[in-house]
Automatic annotation (TrEMBL), chain A:
Residues spanning the membrane: 38-63, 83-103, 142-168, 195-215, 227-247
One of the Pfam families matching this protein, by short name: MlaE
Record keyword Membrane present: yes
Keywords noted in UniProt: Membrane, Transmembrane, Transmembrane helix
This protein's name: ABC transporter permease
KW Transmembrane (keyword) present: yes
From TrEMBL, chain B:
Entry-linked InterPro entries: AAA+_ATPase, ABC_transporter-like_ATP-bd, ABC_transporter-like_CS, P-loop_NTPase
Residue ranges constituting the ABC transporter domain according to the UniProt record: 24-261
Presence of keyword tRNA-binding: no
Keyword annotations: ATP-binding, Nucleotide-binding, Transport
One Pfam family cited in the UniProt record for this chain: ABC_tran
Keyword Cytoplasm: no
GO molecular function term, any single one: ATP binding
Highest taxon in the source lineage: Bacteria
Name assigned to this protein: ABC transporter ATP-binding protein
Organism for this UniProt entry: Pedobacter mendelii
Length: 256, 261
């Protein structure tokens, strides 16, 4: 019985989020645009997330290199380390880890911010003050997350590759130019473009789920906490599902 | 409506004879959430410069009523005429225009946490009237803060202010557009008795200054006594009684009497 009711809840929520996404495309993208608020959100969401994304990217590149090295040494192909690390970071690990960090930081903050605005009637107050809260709060945040995550991913990938270079240099001395030439020669547009494009969808999912959870927050401060938490959980799951779908799609399109 | 009520309750039209044209006319309002009927055949009219207090138990539908009037909730049936225009039939743009004439003081104040007091006050001005110059906006903000005696708080954040100060700022923000009607959702709830009386007197002073009409939702009987020209009792979704504070206070109907004990 509980499985049935949970399945019902899941389907119900999926339907509601789909409707919320539909509302974003039908109302949120219509003029008049909240350009000033969009720029503020791009700054808060993009610029303020950069230190965390950069730090995690650097550690990820460094650790990945150190973990891969012994295996490659045992096969006698340690010279391929930059190639392997480069492809892993750019195609998969960079976009997914950056998106997960982004979901944890931005998804929860959007869920909590809009949730507390909802329970303290600030969203209603905005409506009364001649402002469409959906356009002002939701559309700006969803567009900002969709635009900022690809940029953060590119920057995160670059810092991650630098971390990988440091990792390579721990055991052997490698010239930085030689390292990056080897990495870039192994990469093609079909590695970079799908990886960056999928982060637009990841960003959209993080923004949309955070806004949906916050906008539908109830039951006071407890509800706000729950909104923030479930925004992170749901957007993280969606990131993996979208990743799976994009891999299948790029396979079908012959981009692998 | 039971027999007891039939015999003792004050009928809605018995006391209030029209003295001027009504600014709000609510006709047969019906609103339900799921199976829970909150408003059922509710009717009310508010005259110019009149203060009408709506009394009722928690969850009786008082806040739902004023949220329907401002267009935050859509009733299932019935009409809400504000200056002769039906709010329930308005589109988004028409509603935005109508809302420049209706102020709403939220129970939780609804002051934007991320903005300073000045930005909070500027927000409705800039959103409703985007052609205002900086000097004009500054002048209106100053006047609004002077009205509530808090000019020194303009650059402060809401977190730095006390509950009473936040209520005053919320009142200043509500009045900044000079609305002709103000809807108050429990204006003194959560305040200490002294601050609550200060808010009562501020409401009355500003009402006289700007000649506004008001609907006030309140459980605070001192506030009701101080402010109300007329008291409406909302029970089981309907207008159970309508009269002056004195008349309802002396009613022998136990359903009315319980609010005045």
């Amino acid at each position: 019985m509980s499985i049935i009711s949970e399945a019902k809840d899941f389907l119900d929520q999926t339907g509601q989020i789909s409707r919320f996404a539909g509302r974003f495309f039908s109302h949120g993208l219509k003029p008049k645009f909240e350009v000033k608020e969009l720029l503020v959100q791009c700054y808060l969401i993009g610029y303020k997330s950069f230190p965390l994304v950069g730090l995690t990217g650097f550690i990820m590149g460094l650790v990945l290199t150190m973990q891969l090295r012994p295996s490659l040494v045992s096969y006698g192909v340690q010279s391929e380390l930059p190639v392997m690390v480069g492809i892993a970071i750019v195609r998969e690990i960079g976009p997914v880890i950056t998106a997960l960090i982004f979901a944890g930081k931005i998804g929860s903050s959007i869920g909590a911010e809009l949730g507390s605005m909802k329970v303290t009637e600030q969203i209603d107050s905005m409506d009364v003050s001649g402002t469409n809260p959906f356009k002002y709060l939701v559309a700006t945040r969803v567009i900002a997350t969709s635009l900022m995550l690809p940029i953060l991913t590119i920057l995160g990938d670059a810092i991650s590759l630098f971390g990988a270079y440091i990792g390579v240099n721990i055991k052997s001395v490698t010239n930085i130019r030689f390292f990056f030439v080897q990495v870039f020669e192994s990469l093609s547009y079909s590695d970079v473009l799908p990886a960056v494009i999928k982060t637009i969808f990841f960003g959209f999912a993080v923004g949309l789920v955070g806004c949906y959870k916050g906008f539908n927050s109830t039951k006071g401060t407890q509800g706000v906490g729950r909104s923030a938490n479930s925004a992170v959980v749901l957007s993280s799951v969606l990131i993996f599902i979208l990743d799976l779908l994009t891999v299948q799609l790029t396979n079908l399109l012959g981009l692998n | 409506m039971d027999m007891d009520k039939e015999t003792t309750a004050v009928q809605p039209t018995q006391y209030h004879q029209p003295i001027s044209e009504p600014v709000i006319v609510i006709e047969n309002l019906y609103k339900k959430f799921g199976e829970n009927v909150v408003l059922e055949d509710f009717s009310l009219s508010v005259k110019r410069e009149e203060n009408v207090v709506v009394l009722g138990k928690s969850g009786a539908g008082k806040s739902v009523l004023i949220k329907c009037i401002i267009g935050l909730l859509k009733p299932d049936k019935g009409k809400i005429l504000v200056f002769g225009e039906d709010i329930t039939m308005m589109d988004e743009d028409e509603l935005a225009t109508a809302r420049t004439k209706i102020g709403f003081l939220f129970q939780a104040n609804a002051i934007y946490d991320s903005m300073t007091v000045r930005e909070n006050l500027e927000f409705p001005l800039r959103r409703h009237w985007n052609n205002l110059g900086e000097a004009e906006v500054g002048k209106m903000v100053k006047e609004a803060l002077e009205n509530v005696g808090l000019t020194h708080t303009s650059d402060m954040m809401p977190a730095e202010l006390s509950g009473g100060m936040l209520k005053r700022i919320a009142l200043a923000r509500t009045l900044i557009l000079k609305p002709e009607i103000i809807l108050y959702d429990e204006p003194t709830t959560g305040l200490d008795p002294i601050t609550a009386r200060e808010i009562d007197s501020l409401i009355l002073t500003l009402q006289k200054k700007y000649k506004t009409s008001s609907i006030i939702i309140s459980h605070d009987m001192n506030c009701v006594k101080n402010i109300a020209d007329r008291v409406v009792l909302l029970l089981e979704g309907k207008c159970y009684a309508d009269g002056t504070y004195k008349t309802l206070e002396s009613s022998s109907d136990p359903k009315i009497n319980q609010f005045f004990q």
